[in-house]
Amino acid sequence: MARVYNFSAGPSMLPESVLKKAAAEMLDYEGSGQSVMEMSHRSKIYGTIIEGAEALLREVMNIPDNYKVLFLQGGASTQFAAIPMNLMTKSGKADYVITGQWAKKAHAEAARYGQANVVASSADKTFTYIPKLDPSTFTKDADYFYICMNNTIYGTVYHELPDTGDVPLVADISSCILSRPIDVSKFGVLYAGAQKNMAPAGLTVVIVREDLIGNAMDITPTMLNWKTHADNGSMFNTPPCYTIYIAKLVLEWIKNEVGGLDKMYEINKKKADLLYGFLDSSELFKGTVVPEDRSLMNVPFVTGDADLDAKFVKEATENGLVNIKGHRTVGGMRASIYNAMPYEGVEKLVEFMKKFEAKNK
Ligand SMILES: *Cc1c(COP(=O)(O)O)cnc(C)c1O
């Protein structure tokens, strides 16, 4: 069986050892005679899975005790509404930085519930950079300050966090969660759809400081109120059971096989350096992002010729390098090199790009 190198932005690759373990446990999980998919979420054995997943996430990410971890459904996109509904309740104001489509969508949703200010945007250059932020322009009494940390479509990342003082910082980390250590205590809320770097689709993780729970707007649907899930250990209703189980296996992989987030970061940096290093030396391919804001996870690049881009995507696919076509708003190519993409996958890609360049100069 030949597995391909999958450069998809999400859903994306999972570690092979995780898939093998899940396959081995598919029919009979730890002698229960059932698949994890079939178990009651209220059973004792499932309890060990969801509690184990939370404990591992807390350990691997070093999440302080005064933060709740919620395992939710609805994707990151549902949180675009949940965030203002749970937080925009004192001054009714929030600041947003628009660094791409996901931040833009989050802002549009917040604007339905309160005063959502745009403090900066990089729309003028197709989101190819992270705008410089001037704290004197921030709203002093904002209920929160919102960023999208890693911009999946455009391939930018914040290497430095904005200084928001006492205003809670809220960050969408869908495409960079678990890619490197992060100081959770600097944030009010961190959240992520799991399907980029953590698990299959169907799970959204919300990490929220306890004092920010319990102030939701009256109109907030029960299911969008973080308090509902915080008070019930993410078991108010049926959680995404199987996805949480895979997330637990992925966290075990990070902890035991990779050796934690410092190691993960080292490997991710090595992969990204290899690809960016080649892009910077190539006469055919060009990275689209300013070097100082480059993402370690999503690497967009172009040849400058749409037909040649299409040819590259086609030939890459034939060579087992799949899902490398860029987002329709950027064009060209995008290599998503999340945690589960092995170093050899990036090596294969760079080798292939070199060959393609030699033939198409
Ligand atoms: C993929 C993605 C989303 C959307 O996630 P869904 O789970 O599909 O709603 C939001 N933000 C970022 C940064 C993403 O990469």
UniProtKB/TrEMBL annotation:
In the Enzyme Commission scheme, what number(s) does this protein have?
2.6.1.52
Cofactor binding, per record: Binds 1 pyridoxal phosphate per subunit.
The family line of this record is: Belongs to the class-V pyridoxal-phosphate-dependent aminotransferase family. SerC subfamily.
Among Gene3D superfamilies, the record links this protein to: Aspartate Aminotransferase, domain 1, Type I PLP-dependent aspartate aminotransferase-like (Major domain)
In its UniProt entry, the species of origin is given as: Ruminococcus bromii
Provide the positions where the record notes the PTM N6-(pyridoxal phosphate)lysine: 196
Q: Which enzyme type, at the first EC level?
A: transferase
Reactions listed under catalytic activity? O-phospho-L-serine + 2-oxoglutarate = 3-phosphooxypyruvate + L-glutamate; 4-(phosphooxy)-L-threonine + 2-oxoglutarate = (R)-3-hydroxy-2-oxo-4-phosphooxybutanoate + L-glutamate
Residues reported in the UniProt entry to bind pyridoxal 5'-phosphate:
76-77, 102, 152, 172, 195, 237-238
Subcellular location(s) of the protein: Cytoplasm
| Top-level division of the source organism's lineage | Bacteria
Per the record, the GO terms for biological process are: L-serine biosynthetic process
Report the protein's function. Answer: Catalyzes the reversible conversion of 3-phosphohydroxypyruvate to phosphoserine and of 3-hydroxy-2-oxo-4-phosphonooxybutanoate to phosphohydroxythreonine.
Protein name per the record: Phosphoserine aminotransferase
Which residues make up the binding site for L-glutamate?
42
Give the GO cellular component terms, alphabetically: cytoplasm
Complexes and interactors: Homodimer.
Write one Gene Ontology MF term: O-phospho-L-serine:2-oxoglutarate aminotransferase activity
Pathway the protein takes part in: Amino-acid biosynthesis; L-serine biosynthesis; L-serine from 3-phospho-D-glycerate: step 2/3
Q: Gene name?
A: serC
What's the cofactor?
pyridoxal 5'-phosphate
| Residue ranges of every copy of the Aminotransferase class V domain listed in the record | 4-349
The alphabetical list of record keywords is: Amino-acid biosynthesis, Aminotransferase, Cytoplasm, Pyridoxal phosphate, Serine biosynthesis, Transferase
